[in-house]
Amino acid sequence: MIAKPMIFAALSDLSGKTRGKAFPADQLQKRLESGMGWVPTNVQITCFDTIADSPFGSFGDLALVPDQSAEVAVDFEDGSPREHFMLGDIRTLEGAPWGFCTRSILRQALTRLNTLTGARLQASFEHEFQFARGSTLVHQGFGLQGHSEHARFGEALMAALEKAGLKPDSFICEYGPDQFEVTIAPEEGVRAADAAVITRELTRMTARRVDQCATFTPIRDVASVGNGVHIHMSFLGEAGPITYDAAGEHGMSALTAAFSAGVLKYLESILALTAPSVISYERLTPHRWSAAFNNLGLRDREASLRICPVTAKDAEGIARQFNIEYRAADAAASPHLALAAIIHAGCQGIEEKLAAPKVTEEDLSLLDESGLAAKGFVRLPQTLEEALDRFAANKTVTGWFDPLFAEVYVSHKKAEAAFLEGMDTGQKCTAYEEVY
After folding, report:
1. Between the N and C ends of the chain, which has fewer C-beta atoms within 10 Å?
2. Residue 379: which H helix or E strand, with range?
3. Where's the GS catalytic domain (predicted)?
4. Which of 189, 176, 356 is nearest to 263 (CA)?
5. DSSP bridge partners of 92
6. What single DSSP character describes residue 244?
């Protein structure tokens, strides 16, 4: 069969979906310069492919411009066409970044951090997912046999990630039914979020090649476990890592401490961006090893923000490994938008010169609202509607984005929720499982 190779120009949109357009590969140079036509109202396509109310209507034109530094070309050597795509940016026809392009939003946040502190951000996204078609084995949490059953998939995925230019770290048969975790090494700046998108898409592509379906849905069954995205962050200065300070509170440098305090202060208002589905809030409950309060933990997987353990013994090794982990996220969120929101919150903490947050060492679910308030904590939003209200009401947070962003984002998410009206919780979980 005659075939003309194509390249897919891709973006991670407000729904956390990877969308775009394909073009013949021999047009690459032209597309790198002029991009492909894009429509402003496309930003309002929900994860269920309904279209939310849009301030743009039928008007306007944009360009989706592929970025060769975010190119993926993977041949699975199974006789199927190779997977070839490039993440890109949405720009105005004059070439300026568009205010709703998630990569551009992340760049703005990174620029704010660098201008404010001189630091650069390193990040890595841990992804949990499940096989929707199940396995022949049961009760395989962290099991050798569970791993063995999907070893062909795991080995193919590790190879695909490496071919894509990423550094695969681990593939884990997780605790939940048919649940796995894939991790990659940290990347710097925008590349960290690009790598998260690439990891998700290659995981799905690899699964299809072994007659499976990988779903990153926040939760498949409320009686079981959820699938989180854990975002590990550290900072680099001109001379190397600057996240750690042996004299700082729990090893946090002054920058890390103020950044962490900002994330925790504004967490309730950015949650709609990092855990943005209706069913995200079935996972973000106490005793699910997820996140329910705006607290900092030390080796505590119930905390929203965690100081991660290190294995190094020497000062240089500790400084290199030391990182903080944001746990109130899932794969319904665009990695670019989620990371941008976290960075902006951290920068706000630095600008406000917030003191280092204290580490919690108690079960906060045992405290009532007044007890939490007395200790400086809040229960995080328990529904998407509540999270959107807190986001829209916080003018500091909405001020980090385009003047129309909050209106557009809230409209987008309300249209997503409207699609689910009349469904029970199980049906909602199924709907998201099919999407993510």
Report:
1. N
2. none
3. 102-436
4. 356
5. 62
6. B
**DSSP string over 114-176:** HHHHS-EEEEEEEEEEEETT--S--S-TT-HHHHHHTHHHHHHHHHHHHHTT--EEEEEE-SS
- Which domains, ranges and CATH numbers included, belong to the chain? 6-98 (3.10.20.70), 106-435 (3.30.590.10)
pTM: 0.96
Nearest to 70 by CA among 129, 7, 121, 147: 7
Tell me how far apart the terminal alpha carbons of the chain are, to the nearest angstrom: 32
